[in-house]
From TrEMBL:
Gene Ontology MF, one: beta-galactosidase activity
Cited InterPro entries: GH (IPR017853), GH_1_N_CS (IPR033132), Glyco_hydro_1 (IPR001360), Glyco_hydro_1_beta-glucosidase (IPR017736), TAT_signal (IPR006311)
Bilayer-spanning residue ranges: none
NCBIfam families noted in UniProt: BGL
Catalytically driven reaction(s): Hydrolysis of terminal, non-reducing beta-D-glucosyl residues with release of beta-D-glucose
PROSITE patterns reported for this sequence: GLYCOSYL_HYDROL_F1_2, TAT
Entry's EC annotation: 3.2.1.21
Similarity-based family: Belongs to the glycosyl hydrolase 1 family.
A Pfam cross-reference name: Glyco_hydro_1
Keyword tags: Carbohydrate metabolism, Cellulose degradation, Glycosidase, Hydrolase, Polysaccharide degradation
Lineage: Bacteria, Pseudomonadati, Bacteroidota, Cytophagia, Cytophagales
Name this polypeptide is given: Beta-glucosidase
Amino acid sequence: AAAGGGAHGLSFPAGFLWGTATASYQVEGAVNVDGRGPSIWDTFSHTPGKIANNDTGDVACDFYHRYKEDTQLIKSLNAKAFRFSIAWSRIFPTGKGAPNQKGLDFYNRLVDELLANGIQPFATLYHWDLPQALQDQYKGWQGRETAQAFGDYAGYMAEKLSDRVKHFFTLNELWTFIQLGYGDGVFAPGLKLPPAELNQARHHAVLAHGLAVQAIRAHGRPDTRVGLAENIKVAVPYIETPEHIKAAEIATREFNAGYTTVILEGKYTDTFLKNAGANAPKFTAEDLKIISSPLDFCGINIYNPEAYVRAADNAEGYEKIPFAKSHPTSTSKWELLAPEVLYWGARHMQNIWKVKELYITENGCSGTDELTPENRVNDTDRVAFLRGYLSQLQRAVTDGAPVKGYFYWSLVDNFEWASGYGIRFGLFYMDYKTLKRYPKASAEYFRTMAQQNAVL
Ligand code: PNW
């Protein structure tokens, strides 16, 4: 057998970490249990017309009570890592002030259960369920105070969990919760802010990331490691020649100017500031230093390319090629399928920003999964997705990209935000009436890949 891999297939290096991911509001349920405070997603999902079918996360997958059963599912996949998120309002019901021990105890139990089963916990501190009190008091991310409160909460979590949790992520997908929540109004808190205010909210989010990095360093054990989990907007070179690859790097840097680029470079790009003009965010040099606090690793969530690009003789140095109307998607219409995005996402992180350690913190495929009378789910689309995307990831690693692990989104079908329960990403099918979990064909596929450490 090849080093660390199977006799057949495309092998990964020994020690490559296989995992799956979830997020608190999408799976936990138990929203009124043990002192949890309300979050903006409780408010949003209970506002009629905001979520498909008016679904809410009130019960979700009841992970709060079934985490032991789900730990066994993770184990059955041969996964050695699990990425989950902590509900801020379980720990600080109003976002700050006195901590809620019962909320902390849940994450203590979860972490202990994972470790007892040989699964490394990777904890995300913010996956969009902002305490409602911070929305009411400070207008959420529009207020600089929210960034400060996040830093304090992050430090507290590092102090309490870093004896057992060695990898923390600050914020999950800044682009998504800022753009969709404060710009387009389709995610909580459902705002459509004008550009200047949107830019300021985004600035507070990147600032919160930096403050959290510093707080985790200050309060965590010396071996605590911290990174970001951002859905980097990837430009894919439409032909893999040096000129188009260069163009894709230029484009990727600009696509992420308000997020990953400012975090990793410590400044907003000239083009970003020029385009924003009078609407540019207000910030200090000290802010930029905090925002760009050094990281131990980067997590990237990747599903689809932002664009295919080609080199161009214009001021930008690149040109987007519009997607064909017939470009295939998963059942999520935004998820334009392109396996090579995983290759280029990893390579850009390495080539543009010299990142030394990377994890794919999310990647997954939504489908129309149905349970057959024999209790099977024949998700051939997801199996094809995994083979295609993982082949490209294996190519990236073979070419030297420092990718140390892969987390499939998601372990189980769950509350898919504004799409409710109708869109399914899981390796396990959720029967929402009984809350029984059933392995899909893709679970068997994943389990074999993880076991052989190779794409098969
Ligand atoms: C990510 N878009 O969300 C999130 O991190 C997960 O919580 C989510 O379940 C997963 O991807 C699948 O959607 C996104 O509209 C939601 O471009 C929407 C978009 C992107 C990412």
